Amino acid sequence: MTPTITKEQALCMIFYVEFNPTNMENLKDRIKNMTDIDICYETDSLHPFLLPLVKMYSEPYHYKKYTKTFETLEKIHHVDMQQKQEIHFSSDRQIVQFLNEVYLTTDLLNDRVYTKKLVSNKDILSHVWPYTTKFDDKLVLGFSKWCYSKNVAFTTVDYQCKAFENGQQQRELILILMFNNKIMKPTTFNS
User: How far apart are CA 144 and CA 37, in angstroms?
Assistant: First the structure.
């Protein structure tokens, strides 16, 4: 599954510039001045291009606009936990999409929203529990099997084993995590 990128990241890709706040603001202004052109993609959000709005609107199911911007991601990021508890996933598809958006396998170089972390399946499961009752009767192994059966993106990442003094081992993944440490506190991985 292709990761979702923001409109600002796509703009930097189109104009072959480094993704940083200065370039991001300059390019947002530049594209705003092009009143009849906008940035879009066809099937893969990692392949953006500029297209006249007339063409984009003539085939709205073929050309897709980038709907996520830093502002929307930051709003999602800063929603308090009480509001998050009100979110409830009712289908497998919603859970898979949530997992694929929060736990990326590809680094988008977006330090404002994503952070590289070392996490276990137990960490991931504890993060999903508040949003669904699907895993209330499952242990970590059952959750892991479900993720593999649904082809969740992080299941393609190789595990690392962490040994404890008592002889037990824990399998961990290096993933790109959306939320901050207030929501989930895995060990920070430094590469």
Answer: 44
75: helix, coil or strand?
helix
Q: Which residue has the tokens 């190789």?
A: 158
**Tokens of residue 147, six digits:** 């993720």
Give Cβ neighbours of residue 79 (< 8 Å, ≥ 6 apart). Answer: none
Decide if 107 contacts 19 (C-beta within 8 A): no
- Tell me the C-alpha to C-alpha distance, in Å, between residue 73 and each of 13, 16, 59, 124, 164: 19, 23, 27, 20, 36
Q: Give tens-digit pLDDT for 86-137.
A: 677 888 998 998 888 888 777 666 666 777 788 888 888 888 888 888 888 8
